[in-house]
Every structure is written in structure tokens, then in C-alpha cells.
Amino acid sequence: xxxxxxxxxxxxxxxxxxxxxxxxxxxxxxxxxxxxxxxxxxxxxxxxxxxxxxxxxxxxxxxxxxxxxxxxxxxxxxxxxxxxxxxxxxxxxxxxxxxxxxxxxxxxxxxxxxxxxxxxxxxxxxxxxxxxxxxxxxxxxxxx
Length: 144
Hints:
The chain has 144 residues and is α+β, with helices and mostly antiparallel strands. It has helices at 9-44, 49-55; strands spanning 68-77, 82-88, 94-100, 107-114, 120-127, 134-143.
């Protein structure tokens, strides 16, 4: 028949340590939030949540959609031609990125960089085709 052995002293100590550790984190999880609430109550000076919310300034924007715009301008190159194309943000905005599209694939951008004013984006392109023209759009991502 199957006989159950007594647990070793090491196993008993390990199990006790496990329970102490588990209960210790549970106790700490219960005490720390209470201490934070007490500190926050002192900072609020007895005001309710509604009174504190009324003191807050108006929210600036609830999403980035109102802060970010994308501007574009068309570019075109004749065969074998090379040129720089720049698109600028509106007044008071800053450029955070940019790029271009090239639907025909004939031209290649060899430089893509922000303007020295920080409010525009410049693409330097070359059309490697000797006969076919190329065109597309240059883009800049602007933030307020």
C-alpha cells in the first residue's frame, strides 16, 4: 500500500515562506493605496472630486487629429532632370517628417530632409529615365 512520507524541514520552511510572501504583498497592496488616499486628501484640502475638476483648465485637445496636418505639393521631372522640391507647413507649425510618392518609379529621391526653418520638408530627386517624365507628390507632416 502507498505510504505518505513526512515532509522535510526544508519543505516546511519553503511553504511557510511562500505563504508569508504571498500574504505580505497582499497586505502591502491594501495598505499602500490607503496611504496614498490619505496624502491625496491632504493635497485636495477637503474639496470633492467635482470641485477639483471645476478648477482644472479646459482640455487642450482630446486627440492628435486636431494637432497634426499633412501638407503636399506636386512635383514633376522631365527625363534626365534633377531638382529639389519643398513643401511648407502653415504659419506657427513645425515639420516632424516628410516623404514623397513616385507612381511611375522613374525618379529616385537621393535626399529627404527638414528645411532649415524647421517648418518645411525638402526632397531632392533625379529622373534616371532619359525619355520618360516622372511626377508625384511631396509631403510634410506638421504639428501645431
